[in-house]
Amino acid sequence: MTSYADVQYDNANSTGNVHIALSGYEGVEAAQAGYKSRSVTFASENDREISMPMVGNASVARTGSHNTSGQPLTSMVMRVGTVVVAMVYTHKGEVDPQVLLSLARMQATRIEQSQRGENPIASLAGRPMG
Predict the structure, then answer these.
(1) What is the C-alpha to C-alpha distance for residues 61 and 55, in angstroms, rounded to an integer?
(2) Is there a contact between 84 and 77 (Cβ–Cβ < 8 Å)?
(3) Which of helix, strand or coil describes residue 94?
(4) Terminal alpha carbon distance of the chain
(5) Which of 2, 20, 89, 129 could disulfide-pair with 123, CB 3.0 to 4.6 Å?
(6) Distance between CA atoms of residues 66 and 46, nearest Å
(7) To 5 degrees, how large is the angle CA 95–CA 101–CA 106?
(8) Residue-range domains of the chain with CATH
């Protein structure tokens, strides 16, 4: 791994959040190995895999409960080129896996734009971000 970034976004009324961890690798082979490892280590033993469309070059999605808060969560690990992303969407009450899917697709598009040397401008609402 050559680079790492970690960020968390909380919603306005503090009922949920999204945590995103990105790992950058020197090449695709290293990223494939990183994805394989992260796909296993990112899951809790009580999480269950769920069906979700593939995002990026490879992805796996799961649902479960947050280890410390007990809140419901949906998580995804994906590989986009040489970047591996682990995302968790947690919300009080019920989580909608489609919310995480939308965020993951946006994040994958932003990574692809960046890897092509473009300004990452993909957004959820169709408005440029950044």
Answers:
(1) 10
(2) yes
(3) coil
(4) 25
(5) 129
(6) 10
(7) 130
(8) 3-115 (3.40.1000.70)
Q: What is the pLDDT of residues 30-83, one digit of tens each?
A: 999 999 999 998 888 889 999 999 999 999 999 998 888 888 999 999 999 999
Residue listed under structure tokens 């909608």: 96
Q: How far is 111 from 42, CA to CA, in rounded Å? A: 20
48 vs 6, 36, 75, 91, 117, CA distance in Å?
24, 17, 10, 17, 36
Structure tokens at 125: 């609402």
Which of 99, 103, 88, 76 shows the shortest CA–CA distance to 19? 88
Per the CB < 8 A criterion, the answer to whether 24 and 16 are in contact is no
